[in-house]
Amino acid sequence: MDQLNERVKKEILEHTKASSDKLKENIWNHLDQELFQEKSRKEKKMKKKSKIIPIIIVAAAAIMLLFSTQTDTGTAFIKQVKDMFVPEKEIIQSIEGTEEETEVVLKEGKDAEYVIYMDEERYKLVKGESSDVITTKEPLEDRYPEVSMEIEQFKDVAPEDMVATLETEIASTYTKVTETENVTEPVEGYKIHGISGSEWDSPVTNVYVIDNRHGGSFVITEKYFLEAAEGHGARFYAILQEFKIID
Amino acid sequence: MNKSLMKEIQSGNREAFRRLYDEYADYAIRTAKAITRNDEHAKDAVQEAFIRVYRNISSYNPAQSFNAWFYRILVNECYRLLNKEKKLVPLDPSLVEISPQLLVYSQENISDLYDVIQSMADLYRIPLLLKYIMGFSEKEIAAILELNHNTVKSRLFNARNLLKNQLNLIEMEGN
Known about the structure:
By secondary structure, chain A is an alpha+beta fold. Helix content of chain A is 41%, strand content 30%. Chain A has a single domain (52-245), classed as Jelly Rolls (Sandwich). The longest helix of chain A is centred in the N-terminal third of the chain and has 31 residues, at 21-51. Chain B folds into 2 domains: 1-88, Orthogonal Bundle (Rna Polymerase Sigma Factor, Chain: A), CATH 1.10.1740.10; 89-175, Arc Repressor Mutant, subunit A (Orthogonal Bundle), CATH 1.10.10.10. Helices cover 73% and strands 0% of the residues of chain B.
């Protein structure tokens, strides 16, 4: 029986040869993100929640929005925005198979031409010259590829023309680009998906082109990496479901 | 696992958890690969097992074997994935005990003992894998699989008899 034991053991170990360092590191990266980055975020959130009564949060957000309307130029539009949308609310999003209740805050986009509800515990909205960029509040370590969602309006480019330009552009950046599709979720418009590789850190993009109803387009470019598809990818999706154009 | 490492992990120390991961990951991946017969499932099972270990480490009783606790979590994750894919033979022990069928897959193309093991029903296959990959004792396997010690003993006995017979067959064919 000893001889049998030796042989069985040898064969099993040969067939289940030690895993590659790459696989081991991939698993660790997932654990690191899930357990330590998420944990740090949740702790901050709980700390904040324990100190502030929800009603005060709502009131403060409303006052902040009111003040912001007095300093911006597009006051009329923003007032309309304020009247139309609640300053903050809770949404349910599905993250890695688990329903998660998230508090989101109303943000008005560049020149108040759109609004979006954003999870401010995780993300920040950076307003630029030509576009707005939503990115992680805490900078990611260098080993992680870019995680961002850029929203840009092209007032003179019709959606169909925009799609044709973007298809070429994305194909030159990503090794695999799926055929452009018409989508109704998370926004109504066109979607182009690109990915380079199948590793945990392979860059992924989803580009949405939305009709701005005045002959132009909104282009929303999500960037993240494969391992973050069910994390940041799912959260961007939830944010985009709240994207509204202000006429 | 020593007490100080456990305390550090309980306090949320990332480096301490990494040390635990480095110590356990290789054999956890081997075991999950063998049980799920699928590299992707193995990766998912190992990931989820470590997440559960981290989140539930305060419920671990230091009087018991950490190895057994860890591998119980890992094996349960493997079962969960196998069930999800509906590839698992129903694990209702009463059904299987009435009609003990050692081999659930066709024996065609079986050329070595690993193939024989992988063609066995899970209730024989998994104790055997735990025994040979990790060197667990019957008592430890019973604790991991939450089975009676004698049940494990009997399953290992039957499985090893089958292996012995198959080995004879393979060798006769070879001659």
